[in-house]
Amino acid sequence: MPEICRFLGIIIAMCYNDHAPPHFHARYGELEIRVEIETSKILSGHFPRRAQKLVLEWVEFHRDELLI
Question: Is pTM, for the whole model, over 0.90?
Fold first, then answer.
């Protein structure tokens, strides 16, 4: 899966032709979450609260780019 961003130990990856709804994967150590781009809803997985907050802030800043 192509990595599109890396920050503070969090890796964001996304397959552009993946199944609906549009989402990306975030990894933090051995943990992984899937986040819906349009709503910032966590579709699956679990992160520590601080890492989850950082990912949700990141998607707010990059939503328009991710939906292209």
Answer: yes
